Amino acid sequence: MKNGEAAAIFMYMSVAYAINYPLLKIAFQLDPPMVILFLRIFFALLGSLPFIILNFRRFPHGLKDNLLVFTVSMLNIVGFMGLWFVGESLVSASLSSILVYTFPIFNVLLSILFVGERPRWTAYAGLAFGFLGVVLVSLDNLEASGILGIALLILSALCWSIGTVVFKKATPHMDVGAVNVMQYVYSLPFLLFLALISPGFSLGGLTPTVIGIGAYIGIVGTYLPYLAYLLLFRNYSISKISPFFFLVPAISVILSFIFIGEAISLTTILGFVVISGGILLSNR
Fold first, then answer.
1. Residues 20, 224: contact at Cβ < 8 Å?
2. Residue 21: other Cβ atoms inside 10 A
3. How many structural domains is the chain composed of?
4. d(CA 219, CA 215)
5. Average pLDDT over residues 161-173
6. Most Cβ neighbours (<10 Å): which of 90, 173, 206, 221?
7. Does pLDDT of 269 surpass 80?
8. Chain CA centroid to CA 266, Å
9. Is the pLDDT of residue 115 over 60?
10. 231 lies in which domain range?
11. d(Cα 273, Cα 284) in Å, to the nearest integer?
12. What pTM value is reported for the model?
């Protein structure tokens, strides 16, 4: 993959992911988070049908490979997205995007603890700055948002980080597009169950507006950008890609202000800057 192509793919992915955050806040006023998540993954899978039909032979067939993809789906979809959606239902879209995109910091921490990497001193400085930024953002929003939403979002970032490491280490022999689609297949029954037992769920709540939002975030905001995400991590090292993910919450903060009128405090902005600096340092 050429650098120019990678940059274009990354920018599309960043904008597509950033738009999801204010859209979700609108959707959560209409239906429970797990219902919206089910619709998101359902439409992501529906949008991938042409790929499935044309590339079925490239899908993993062995038990071991399918167990690996199942693990990735539980981490990246049920774990990461489930915790994110419930967490964002309790906090602002801006705060949600900032905390979710602390996952590059967890990438470095996991590589030190479990992969045995011995990074430069800048990585440790970056970890310290990153977690300082998380503390600043969390304390600034604790009274208004509640500790539960903040904790769920941080856990969602950890799940995403673990899922990224598993994908990078365990699935290099698999087709990226097939892994992307199969994680939707494996997660969908779990999400359906969680949607059906969600307080406030009713079939009458599945209005054209809700379905339209689900279709948009499922295809434009999930299937295509997630494929871009996996392609980037397949072709580049985690440490090379991760530092640039601070662009997503930066764009999301702007879009949340434009679309739903959210504003954030100077302390939260400072915390975001500190987190971004920590990501840049930790991945040098």
1. no
2. 29
3. 1
4. 6
5. 84
6. 221
7. yes
8. 25
9. no
10. 3-282
11. 17
12. 0.85
CA distance 232 to 253: 24
Residue 283 — very low, low, confident or very high, per pLDDT cuts 50/70/90? Answer: low
Cβ count near 210 (within 10 Å): 17
3-state secondary structure the chain: CCHHHHHHHHHHHHHHHHHHHHHHHHHHCCCCHHHHHHHHHHHHHHHCHHHHHHCHHHCCCCHHHHHHHHHHHHHHHHHHHHHHHHHHCCCCHHHHHHHHCCHHHHHHHHHHHHHCCCCCHHHHHHHHHHHHHHHHHHHHHHHHHCHHHHHHHHHHHHHHHHHHHHHHHHCCCCCHHHHHHHHHHHHHHHHHHHHHCCCCCCHHHCCHHHHHHHHHHHHHHHHHHHHHHHHHHHHCCHHHHHHHHHHHHHHHHHHHHHHHCCCCCHHHHHHHHHHHHHHHHHCC
Please write the tens of the pLDDT for every residue from 1-12. 677 778 888 888
Using CA atoms in the order 177, 180, 183, 187, what is the torsion angle rounded to 10 degrees? -130
HSE-CB of 91 using CA atoms within 13 angstroms: 32
In the prediction, which pLDDT does 78 show? 96
Q: Are 166 and 114 in contact (CB under 8 A)?
A: no
pLDDT for 147: 84
